[in-house]
């Protein structure tokens, strides 16, 4: 009970002699130091608010403006009194000119002028960031307008920005003309429909555009004028938070560890470094020390709003909709091990524990042999099952008493840690099968040993392998991937380990024991846990995951062909799906809209007329000379669709918002209803590597990230995630459902491998022929 006494700052006892007051100076000192840390954070936030509030200017520029105005007043005033200014400088009386009233007036005027200049600079920066024509220009053919634009943008961005410095300067997401959206939609579905079906859909679309569509568009434009982003709040609420089914598999996604390397086989040590790296990243986010994310290879910033709810965040269930709760700070993490929940304090007296100290505390948890309390071991299944039963249980049995205190410890934690008692990774005699089991473990685990409501949960396996499971509503995969890249690199290259695999540093062995969370789980809750677990287990058992590290070639060879690597892979996926299922399907590729404030994603409809024409020509046995230009057209079309989606001219978010408006107005649209009920049988996403400089793959080629994946969107479809690593590798994560006899992840991966080879061969053979012809022509000219 020593740790319990340390938590009490003072005790008093009433005796016949009076009141006996006992102070715990150690506890009071820790309270004092924690308060100092809290005030330091507040001062830091105030300082950062000032710096980013005046960006792209600086706070010190105010002094420059004041001095300039005062100097101007002094010069003009004395010149008026004494025109022969230089000859009479000796007699110059500053007090005469700069009296109190003049000083106050000068300061007020200078401040107003300074604020006006800041607003003008921010307006100019916003105008510059609203220019997107650069994206549509061909590589190597930059227009003069774009060159001037880049120069001006560099000038205005020359000061070192904080993480959120650009937020108020980012443009708002524009509402596309309804005519353009309808036209693009009809083009996207043309390869999927027969002539009669396409004619019917065209009539529906034209009727919608000429009648109800314009009315809905006016309401949407009104929202766009009022809101920061006309899509994001509705997208978060209606796509994620209002879903009443399980978020496990259906919404949450996962990220994996290094493929070939495990930095240490010691579970507690890996947990110590991982927790430390995550908390260092949180410190950078809180202090806004992270550099703003930019479009690769440019100075163009992306919205950083998703970072705000990365830590200390949980999704709480409700009857009709869930709610995202975020707390400013948390000094502890929640840990799960063998059916028990712990609160692990990671700060002491305002100081972040060292990695070695966190390892020491984790080892204490691993060594704790106490059994779970009744109903405790599988309590996490409530977060894996349907949302409404979890909402009822939470309201009825977790809203007061010890259950509320323990639940608060989990929900208010910085993040959630699972110390898994299994070993995972690419190992043993069946490395491919073990990778698949590793993916399934991160996606759903045992359905009760993760807390799927937390913003993200870290899993540390018995053999030192790690991974994460992320809740989707608060942010998209690139934001979590940025966090995970930093964590892996900091763990392996900065914090490091001793020769025997332990964390570096010293240990304060007076640290209090990690706190066991106490529960009182009634039989009604235990019964619901069993029901939720059965629902989640059925869903987990149905998922078929296959992870495929493709090592034959990567973006290096693809880019030599002057083809976008993403377009290349997407065309390969279209060919693979056609060979697997004998036709085309509605294909979803996630694209970001973070060029705009609070932007999230847009859909790129990868199955286009051009890609389907190439696939049909190839499958019909056309000669390579006919297929090659079709491939080029498909690639260019895909790149154009991606650019349109990134610049706010996509299809699906606009139609989604029009549908929401129609529901608010209580009107039915057959066109919108049909569009939003179409299944995405091929859902794809690329996870970009954003911080390649952290890994140095030339000197450390074995430190390759596996990326991550997600569950299938449609019951009869595939989920495909891929990450392009370095120049020579592409990792694929494919998921489907066993319950559909037409989808087998292993088979589809085989088709992907086969089809990307075919696409590469067509282009490389043409390139070789072109180079041979060029060499012959050069030789003839030389001979002549």
UniProtKB/TrEMBL annotation:
Q: Could you tell me the keywords of this UniProt record?
A: Acyltransferase, Fatty acid metabolism, Lipid metabolism, Membrane, Mitochondrion, Transferase, Transmembrane, Transmembrane helix, Transport
Enzyme Commission number(s) of this protein: 2.3.1.21
Main EC class the enzyme belongs to? transferase
Q: Where is the active site?
A: 472
Q: Which GO terms describe its biological process?
A: carnitine metabolic process; fatty acid beta-oxidation; long-chain fatty acid transport
What is the name listed in the Swiss-Prot or TrEMBL entry for this protein?
carnitine O-palmitoyltransferase
| InterPro entries per UniProt | Carn_acyl_trans, CAT-like_dom_sf, Cho/carn_acyl_trans, Cho/carn_acyl_trans_2, CPT_N
Checking SUPFAM superfamilies in the record gives: CoA-dependent acyltransferases (SSF52777)
Domain Choline/carnitine acyltransferase: from-to ranges = 173-753
Its membrane topology is listed as: Multi-pass membrane protein
Q: Where would I find the Carnitine O-palmitoyltransferase N-terminal domain in this sequence?
A: 1-47
Species of origin reads Sparus aurata (Gilthead sea bream)
* Gene3D superfamilies xref list: 6.10.250.1760, Chloramphenicol acetyltransferase-like domain, Choline/Carnitine o-acyltransferase, domain 2
Residue ranges spanning the membrane: these are: 62-81, 101-125
Swiss-Prot/TrEMBL catalytic activity: (R)-carnitine + hexadecanoyl-CoA = O-hexadecanoyl-(R)-carnitine + CoA
Q: Name one GO cellular component term.
A: mitochondrial outer membrane
Which PROSITE patterns did the record assign? ACYLTRANSF_C_1 (PS00439), ACYLTRANSF_C_2 (PS00440)
């Amino acid at each position: 009970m020593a740790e319990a006494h340390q938590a009490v700052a003072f005790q008093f006892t009433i005796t016949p002699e009076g009141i006996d007051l006992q102070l715990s100076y150690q506890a009071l000192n820790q309270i004092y130091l924690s308060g100092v840390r809290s005030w330091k954070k507040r001062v830091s936030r105030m300082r950062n608010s000032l710096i980013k509030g005046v960006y792209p200017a600086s706070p010190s520029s105010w002094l420059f403006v004041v001095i300039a105005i005062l100097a101007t007043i002094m010069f003009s005033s004395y010149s008026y009194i004494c025109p022969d200014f230089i000859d009479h400088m000796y007699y110059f009386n500053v007090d005469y000119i700069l009296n109190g009233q003049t000083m106050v007036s000068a300061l007020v005027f200078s401040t107003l002028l300074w604020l006006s200049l800041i607003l003008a600079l921010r307006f100019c920066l916003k105008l510059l960031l609203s220019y997107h024509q650069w994206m549509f220009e061909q590589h190597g053919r930059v227009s003069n307008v774009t060159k001037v634009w880049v120069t001006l943008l560099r000038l205005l961005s020359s000061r070192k920005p904080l993480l959120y410095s650009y937020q108020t300067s980012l443009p708002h997401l524009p509402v596309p003309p309804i005519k353009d959206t309808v036209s693009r939609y009809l083009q996207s579905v043309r390869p999927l429909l027969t002539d009669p079906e396409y004619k019917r859909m065209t009539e529906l679309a034209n009727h919608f555009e000429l009648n109800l569509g314009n009315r809905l568009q006016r309401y949407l434009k009104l929202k766009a004028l009022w809101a920061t982003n006309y899509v994001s709040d509705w997208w978060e609420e209606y796509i994620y938070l209002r879903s009443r089914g399980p978020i496990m598999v259906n919404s949450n996604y996962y990220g994996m560890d290094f493929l070939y390397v495990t930095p240490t086989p010691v579970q507690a040590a890996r947990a110590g470094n991982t927790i430390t790296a995550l908390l260092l990243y949180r410190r950078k986010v809180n202090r806004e020390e992270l550099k703003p994310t930019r479009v690769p290879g440019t100075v163009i910033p992306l919205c950083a709003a998703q970072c705000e709810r990365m830590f200390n965040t949980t999704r709480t269930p409700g009857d009709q909709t869930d709610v995202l709760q975020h707390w400013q700070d948390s000094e502890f993490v929640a840990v799960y091990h063998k059916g028990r929940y712990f609160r692990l304090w990671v700060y002491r007296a305002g100081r972040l524990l060292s990695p070695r100290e966190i390892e020491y505390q984790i080892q204490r948890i691993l060594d704790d042999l106490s059994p779970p309390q009744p109903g405790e071991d599988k309590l996490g299944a409530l977060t894996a099952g349907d949302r409404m039963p979890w909402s009822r249980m939470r309201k009825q049995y977790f809203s007061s008493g010890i259950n509320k205190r323990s639940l608060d410890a989990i929900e208010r934690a910085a993040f959630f840690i699972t110390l898994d008692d299994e070993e995972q990774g690419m190992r043993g005699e069946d490395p491919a099968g073990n990778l698949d089991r590793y993916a399934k473990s991160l996606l759903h685990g045992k359905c009760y040993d993760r807390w799927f409501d937390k913003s993200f949960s870290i899993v540390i396996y018995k053999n030192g392998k790690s991974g994460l499971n992320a809740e989707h509503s608060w942010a998209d995969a690139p934001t979590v991937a940025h966090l995970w890249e930093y964590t892996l690199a900091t763990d392996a290259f900065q914090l490091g380990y001793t020769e025997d695999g332990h964390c570096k540093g010293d240990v304060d062995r007076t640290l209090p024991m990690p706190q066991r969370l106490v529960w009182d789980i009634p039989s009604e809750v235990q019964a619901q846990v069993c029901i939720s677990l059965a629902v989640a287990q059925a869903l987990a058992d149905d998922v078929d995951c296959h992870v495929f590290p493709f090592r034959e070639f990567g973006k290096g060879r693809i880019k030599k062909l002057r083809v976008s690597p993403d377009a290349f892979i997407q065309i390969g996926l279209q060919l693979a799906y056609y060979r697997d299922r004998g036709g085309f399907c509605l294909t979803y590729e996630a694209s970001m809209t973070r060029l705009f404030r609070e932007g999230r994603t847009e859909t790129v409809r990868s199955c286009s007329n051009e890609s389907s024409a190439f696939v049909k020509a190839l499958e019909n046995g056309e000669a390579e000379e006919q297929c090659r230009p079709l491939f080029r057209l498909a690639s260019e079309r895909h790149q154009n669709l991606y650019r349109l989606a990134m610049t706010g001219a996509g299809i699906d978010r606009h139609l989604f918002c029009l549908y929401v408006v129609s529901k608010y107005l209580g009107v039915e649209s057959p066109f919108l209803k049909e569009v939003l009920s179409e299944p995405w049988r091929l859902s794809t996403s690329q996870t970009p590597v954003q911080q390649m400089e952290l890994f140095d793959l030339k000197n450390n080629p074995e430190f390759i990230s596996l990326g991550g994946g997600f569950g299938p969107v449609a019951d009869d479809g595939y989920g495909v995630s891929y990450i392009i690593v370095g120049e020579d590798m592409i990792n694929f994560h494919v998921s489907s459902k066993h319950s559909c006899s037409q989808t087998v992840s292993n088979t589809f991966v085989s088709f992907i491998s086969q089809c990307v080879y075919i696409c590469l061969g067509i282009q490389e053979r043409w390139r070789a022929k072109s180079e041979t012809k060029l060499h012959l022509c050069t030789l003839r000219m030389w001979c002549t």
